[in-house]
Amino acid sequence: MGALQRTFWSWAETMAWHYAREIPDYARLDTRVLERDVVVVSFEYLRALEEGGDVENLALAVGQRRRSQGVSLPALLRAYRLWAKDTLEALKTSAPSRVVELAPRVLELLDRVSEASARGYQLALEGALPRGPLTGVAAQLADAGSLVLAPRYLRLPPEGMAYAQAPLGPLLFLAAPLVEVEEALRSLARQSRAVLWVEEGTKLSELQADLEEALGLGHLLSLPPGLYPTRFLWPLAMALESPKGRDRLLRLLAPLEAHPELLRTLEAYLQARLSLKGAARRLELHPNTILYRLHKVEELTGLRLDRVEDLSLLGMALQLRQAMEGPSLA
User: Fold this and answer.
1) Which CATH architecture group holds 134-237?
2) Hey, what's the torsion of the CAs at 25, 30, 36, 39, to 10 degrees?
3) What fold characterizes domain 3-126?
4) Distance CA 97, CA 295 (A)
5) What would the mean pLDDT of 238-255 be, rounded to a whole number?
6) What is the DSSP string of 142-160?
7) In the predicted model, is pLDDT for residue 262 greater than 70?
8) Could you give the 3-state DSSP secondary structure of residue 135?
């Protein structure tokens, strides 16, 4: 990132605060969502000043999101005017020699993003996604900025995307089967270092309910960035509803409680999708050390890691243990 882009990023971080102070509709938004959303969008627009590029799809998606968040169109357009004003002030301070060059670009970009966001806002008002298979995506509040960049990764027309705001995070609905967008969503999760929950279906209301449940359970776990199907959480949901189920699963890990290094190794092994090398990289250990520890896990628990049913039980037990203890601070 160049010097000017570093300045842009620093400046973008102040935009959310300015919007909330000046515009009542923005002041009503959850500050965690607003900060991550506005910082990413502002930076992408600012970067376009220097590098050029297409920002229309991003701006169109902003219009859709703001409509789902209850922001009025006049408030959205006012935020853009504030963005342009603040950007010009930032340029005067940080890059005075480039003001003459970049000021016309600021005004031209203001027109482009305002027009595109207004179109997106209108699309959101007009309603439903086309009939057919749908894919729903949810991000935790901490990863709210990730869905901002979805238009960059997904080759879908604007009318094939719709946003909603749930209490625990933003939602994105796509008029496409999961198989068509899965790799793009994985890239989005990887590049934005976000945990994204995904579900496929045909009824938007059911998708939304499943995704909101995933957000409610997912924040209890410490998961590496990636794309996770909501069914990953079904065993955890069932275990949390059954005291007997909780006790049985937690008893599986009881022999490992005195060996925290074995618990960490088992968790890393599962997160690395049963890759010794992947677990070794996560823990910065030699693969042979991982293998030795996994043998100890088998010895102490009486379970075998080459059996799907035993692996599933241990995975559920680790999920439950994380949920009972709360999210990791690591």
Assistant:
1) 2-Layer Sandwich (3.30)
2) 30
3) Globin-like (1.10.490)
4) 64
5) 82
6) GGGGGGGGHHHH----GGG
7) yes
8) strand
